[in-house]
Amino acid sequence: MQDFLKRLPKAELHLHIEGSLEPELMFALAERNGIELPYASVDEVRAAYEFEDLQSFLNLYYQGMAVLRSADDFFDLAMDYFRRAHAEGVVHVEISFDPQAHLARGIELGVQMEGLSRARRQAERELDMSTALIMSFLRDRPADEAMRVLEQAAPYWEMLDAVGLDSAECGHPPSKFREVFARAMTLGIPRVAHAGEEGPPSYIREALDLLDVCRIDHGVRCLEDSALVERLREERIPLTVCPLSNVRLKVVEHIDDHPLPKLMDAGLLLTLNSDDPAYFGGGVLANYLACQRAFGWSKETFAILARNAIEVAFLDDSRRQALR
Ligand code: HPA
Ligand code: ZN
């Protein structure tokens, strides 16, 4: 089964590239850039990854990414991840990035884009992977800042497959970003949003109704609202579910209690993803394997989940056809 899951051609749709920063690379980049880390060793970094909730993770996530300064750093970050994903049987990856978190540290958007774009081209060429890019807005920062970043990204609009919405969810409903997402829609840029991870089901509704998103990231709390579940099923709205993330951020207590089987029984369009693999105990394959251990799903079920991701990915028709 392990071999089957590894070989199964998988697509990853929910991955924060800054959350793929492994401690080894964090140390290497800190040294390259003359940055002092608050840790003595790689083991010490890993030992610090005990989270109480989303915010306690975000604090370390934003701290960790401070080692990213040059385009080469962003290139190394993404390339490191693409190589690992490739080795796990991932054939298509959609990477989210958080431009505001870097702009706030004085790292220009052009630097971020140069490094990430170069890595995407190299992965496409050398690893025969396809990739997509999602520019995410930080929902715990003001909406007008997100709007300025969207306008600032004008030279790169063509390179964006979507815009997204992430960071601390509670108290920052999708409605806060309705103008920003309306502008993205005018520009013809597709939209996704995190909703229903820690936040209530009403945030999922808002993301659909006010932001016109084509996918919901996480969405696991939809189960608290049966009419919403029915709507997600009817409209075939994909959920990008991240089981190991949900365990590590205590959205669920244990993988055995994860709502994935219920979401599946409800007939929802589900995909399995890693979210922040360096922080949550592994990449896509680790998430597939964790579900296999917890739920004992058949090969057929995993094949459907993998197929779902390919069907709802930001892919051109010929590549999608080739991956089917
Ligand atoms: N949730 C919200 N924001 C994030 C996450 C997450 O799991 N990872 C990185 N930014
Ligand atoms: Zn996420």
From TrEMBL:
Which residue positions does UniProt flag as site: Important for catalytic activity?
218
Which domain of life does this protein belong to? Bacteria
Catalyses which reaction(s) = adenine + H2O + H(+) = hypoxanthine + NH4(+)
Q: What EC class is this?
A: hydrolase
This enzyme's EC code(s): 3.5.4.2
Q: Which InterPro entries match?
A: A_deaminase_dom, ADE, Ado/ade_deaminase, Metal_Hydrolase
Where do the annotations place substrate binding? 276
Q: Where does the record locate the signal sequence feature?
A: none
- Has UniProt tagged this entry with the keyword Zinc? yes
Active site residues of this protein: 197
Q: In which residues is Zn(2+) bound?
A: 14, 16, 194, 275
Molecular function (Gene Ontology), one example: hydrolase activity
What does this protein's record comment on cofactor binding? Answer: Binds 1 zinc ion per subunit.
This protein's UniProt keywords: Hydrolase, Metal-binding, Nucleotide metabolism, Zinc
Member of which family? Belongs to the metallo-dependent hydrolases superfamily. Adenosine and AMP deaminases family. Adenine deaminase type 2 subfamily.
Q: What does this protein do?
A: Catalyzes the hydrolytic deamination of adenine to hypoxanthine. Plays an important role in the purine salvage pathway and in nitrogen catabolism.
Q: What is this protein called?
A: Adenine deaminase
